[in-house]
Amino acid sequence: MQGCDGSILLDDTSSFTGEKTAIPNKNSARGFEVIDKIKSAVEEVCPGVVSCADILAVTARDSVEILGGPSWDVKLGRRDARTTSKSAANKDIPAPTSSLNQLISRYNALGLSTKDLVALS
Binding site residues for Ca(2+), as ranges? Predict the structure, then answer.
């Protein structure tokens, strides 16, 4: 889990346990099959060009905007992660039991506003 690198999409392998089953992602992160379908469609048109990380960034932005939230420019060119860490996800992703003040403080420490917190939640 190193930012917007698509690492949440990685399934467990013999060398690592992915973050899909990390505590903060349980009953929260979902829709993986939608991203898989988008990736398959994109690969048919331009194979090996668009990363899963870019697809996640664009779909997140579009979803927020469709629901009436803000829009923003998405810089493309991210590289997909090749590994991930469930323990890092458990440590770095806010717990589902975090209070509003804890979330605001955490986002502010990352240079993000309360509006960003709402849009990204």
Answer: 3, 5, 7, 19
